[in-house]
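Hello K.,

You asked for the raw outputs rather than the summary table, so here they are, unedited. I folded two proteins back to back in the same session to keep the settings identical. This is the first:
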Amino acid sequence: MSRGKLIVISAPSGGGKTTIAREILARHKDMKFSVSATTRKRRENEVDGRDYFFLTRDDFEKKITRGELAEYETIYGDYYGSLKSVVEDALTEGKALLFDIDVNGALTIKRKYSNDAVLIFIQPPNLEVLRERLLKRNTEDETTVARRLERASMELEKGKRFDHKIVNDDLARAVREVDDIVKKSIESC
């Protein structure tokens, strides 16, 4: 059996990574999704185990201590991370595993699983478009939007280190481009 492939999609908040990731999963029924663990509060429409594994800070820190995370990051005071067991299982079973994670987590995955990981950065057309998208979501106040835009500069810089960069100025085209990358990547597993 061939080894699996880790497909990592990352972008600044509002860049479209989750929308694109969902479309890729719909097109590739045999692909698994790496549900991240987090300590942040669950939003009204989120389901534990589907959107995230919602953990207490203590439980998350125990996973760090026991080495149970393939990657983790603190963002805006909350932990986010990917379970190592899910990653190892996908690789061993020869499955493609899709991640929707931040840039630092993506670079950690690449560092730990170099030949098994493909990093795709979804870039917004510009920061003003990103700001408009964040405001349209209606999930954050102006202060949170400003904080996310500040972080976006760092994310755009780190995105230059990814294997692929897709500008999301047309969602249908961006999905097609990501899908082409995914197809080529999973053909090898």
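The second followed immediately with the same parameters:
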Amino acid sequence: MNKLKKAVEELVIDTNISKRIRDYNELHNKLINDEEITTLRKKIQTLYDYTYGGQLLGGYPSCELCDPGHVS
């Protein structure tokens, strides 16, 4: 138990881990507040809702995901 306690204490005072956590939190906050990411997440959620809600997408230009110049 003492070894576990010591290992946890060392993790808490390790400056590299603390810096990585701060960097992660900073990047996470930037992503959450990024306007383009928010717009993309909304589009993905809408597509998901349409697909799993049973609505047919109908291809271009209905869903605007398909390239109109691309022939399958």
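Helices lie at 2-13, 15-33, 35-52.

Happy to rerun anything if the numbers look odd on your end.

Regards,
P.
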